[in-house]
Amino acid sequence: MTIPNSVTTIGTNSFSFCTGLTSITIPNSVTSIGFEAFYECTSLTFLNIGKSVTSIEDGAFSGCTGLTEVYSMINEPFNTNTNVWHGVNKNIPLYVPTGSKAKYQAREGWKEFTNIIEIDVSTQNTLSMDNLTGYVGKNVTLPIQMNNQQQITGLQFDLYLPEGVTVAKKVNGKNDITVTDRMDDGYSLSSNTMEDGCVRVTGLSMESTPFTGNDGSIINVVLQIDESAADGDYQIQVKNIILSDVTGVAHKPASASCMLSVKSYIPGDVDGSEDININDAVCIVNYILNKPNVKFIIEAADLDGSGDININDAVVLINKFILKKTNAKAMKAPQRAATGNDNYLSIDAVNIKPGETKTISVGMTNTENIQGLQCNIELPEGLSFTTKANGKIDIANNIDRGDGFTLSGYLQEDGSLTVAAVNFDGDTYYGNSGTIFTFKITADEGMPVGEYEIKVRDIVLSSGVAIKPSDTTGKVTVESSQTSIQQIESNDNASDQIYNLSGQRVKAPLHGIYVINGRKVIVK
Q: How many Cα atoms within 13 Å fall on the side-chain side of residue 304?
């Protein structure tokens, strides 16, 4: 955890029982650390106290049993209560500014530490590492940076890696640790695994030639993440740093640390092929439609960080990884609900008779450029989605608004239709209103006359940001399928009254449909 320089006080119990806290640097802006501020932070291994602290209250670091090193940048140490460090191993290194060791040995609380080591904190000669992300079973490069005011000709440090992470090997079996262009061919670099498991790295110029520049990466370490590694954040540390300048002075800066975030997937590699391509976008669309794929990595598909897989993830993948558009939305793009009437779907009303098939139009009104959409369509009992001769749902793009869009409709077990549309060229729908696709419905022969609703739900419109409008409905009116002959009065004393469907009376019916004594009859 990094505390910003705007903080001046760390209050009582601020981080008590924060058992996940592993590393803390208290900035130079802080002047006081309160009662039991870090009480029982049992996973805390690294502590750096800024130079401006003038008071540490009772129990501030009590129970921090995991500490392996403490840095105090305070030049003039003050007495503290012995309970400040209760439970802390007093044999761990306590690093203090050059010239202050004797003062720490004379102060209450501090003098309990048996291994007080002076380091140079007067200059900015330091090593540092940025946080990085790696993937299970893969290698990742860790750049180690040096910021120096003096001319440095040699360096040494111990690299501590978490369990499940090792230094990768070159073809010759040596550690894959290399220098950057801040060291030229005249530099010697070596590494070796020590008894405690750390990797000690040394680099120097045999000709005492200073390293080039004053900041930037100086050494690259290739790390190998085991197949058995679990997802999570892990700490990497560089300790026991020595930087030697051209005058022969050894600078001993504070340890450096960073977090390695281990993931079991590569964002965008939805099918696990170790390559991000059009198939990954297709896999996302199929997932939306509830059509199974051989392999589908959910975490890799959630590219907008919404916790939900929808058409926006397919759009982000297409724009960022396939089209590599410079203006593509960033990963972890936010999602939002549509506000007012800015972006929404609508469905046209339709009249239908039993046994009849009608086309339904779905319209979109939008104020933003939409590159993809999805929704679920529910029909009332008695209506069904019409299929083509090939058995697929009869659904079609309106090319006037969406030429180039791939439109898919997939019927779910509950009878609803999931619709997904996306443009693999990165184009957007034309215009701001009008029909975007159509589908066909058929009414059952025995469907009762009346008004019904078609529901469109779970709508997502993607502009690189997932927009989620409210559900919408469309009205379906089922009309009577009766012919123009509504009723025929019959005479009980007369012989059979026979009429054809044109209302003409006939004597002897042939093949066809006739109205005999007020009833429809099929004559075969």
A: 25
CB 361 within 8 A of CB 435: yes
- Distance between CA atoms of residues 107 and 41, nearest Å: 24
- Are the CB atoms for 416 and 454 separated by under 8 Å? no
CA angle 282, 284, 287 (to 5 degrees): 110
User: Cα-flanking dihedrals φ and ψ of residue 287, to 5°?
Assistant: -65, -45
The C-alpha atoms of residue 298 and residue 507 are separated, in whole angstroms, by 74
Assign 334 a pLDDT band (cuts: 50, 70, 90).
Answer: very low
List C-alpha distances in Å: 24 to 1, 44, 97, 306, 375.
5, 8, 19, 30, 47
3-state SS track over 26-47: ECCCCCEECCCCCCCCCCCCEE
Sign of the Cα pseudo-torsion (480, 482, 483, 488, in order): negative
Q: Given a cut of 80, is residue 123 above it in pLDDT?
A: no
Count the Cβ atoms, other than its own, within 10 Å of residue 192: 10
More confident residue, 14 or 341: 14
* pLDDT at residue 338 tops 50: no
- C-alpha distance from residue 233 to each of 110, 238, 487, 524 (Å): 32, 17, 81, 81
For residue 271, count other CB atoms closer than 10 A to its CB: 20
pLDDT at 330 over 50: no
pLDDT over threshold 80, residue 109: yes
CB atoms within 10 A of CB 2: 9
CA angle 107, 113, 114 (to 5 degrees): 120
What sign has the CA pseudo-torsion 362, 365, 370, 376? negative
